[in-house]
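Researcher: I'm preparing a figure for a lab meeting and need a structural model of a single chain. I don't have an experimental structure, so a prediction will have to do for now. The sequence is pasted below. Please return the structure as tokens so I can convert it later.
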Amino acid sequence: MARTTLNRDKIIHHAYDLANAQGFDSLNLAALARDLGVQTPGLYKHTEGLEDIRRGVVLIALRQLHGILLTALAGRSGDVAIRSVAAAYRRFAHDTPGAFDATAVAPPQDDKEWHEAGWQVVNAVACVFTSYDLSRDQIVHAVRILRSSIYGFVALERNRGFGLPQDLDISFSSLVTVLIEGLKTHFSMAPKEEML
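Model: Understood. Here is the structure written out token by token.
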């Protein structure tokens, strides 16, 4: 890439690609500058440094995940919506591993844009539970349970933490089934139409 074509947007999108190839935690200015064909100080002409670039990657990742989750939810409700969102979350982790890791980074307290992007993801996951008769607090707990379970499974899967030969797709499907049934039992979770 020629030096004259470099700008903030190109740097951050290239960092996003680099994070997916090498890992979000491995993202550094030297590698990014080398990849872009510039000297490291050249990145400071368009950005405020590594934290600024990492923030940009996080925002792209959160917005991308939000769109993926909304697509997974479209026209679905109840157990089908939970399964669709879980599968979409897992695909996102495998297709864009750096972006997946970026979505788990906590935002600074005063960064409204970052907080808003994160809330959009949480709210998309919360939508899978709106067709059940749950209180707001129960939905918060259900979202945490679903997100952490999927994140844990995918983290182990990506780090080759499952050494036995049994099919991981079956394990993941079983995990989601156990989650759904466990949530239904714990929260007496039933579809709203069944409550009428």
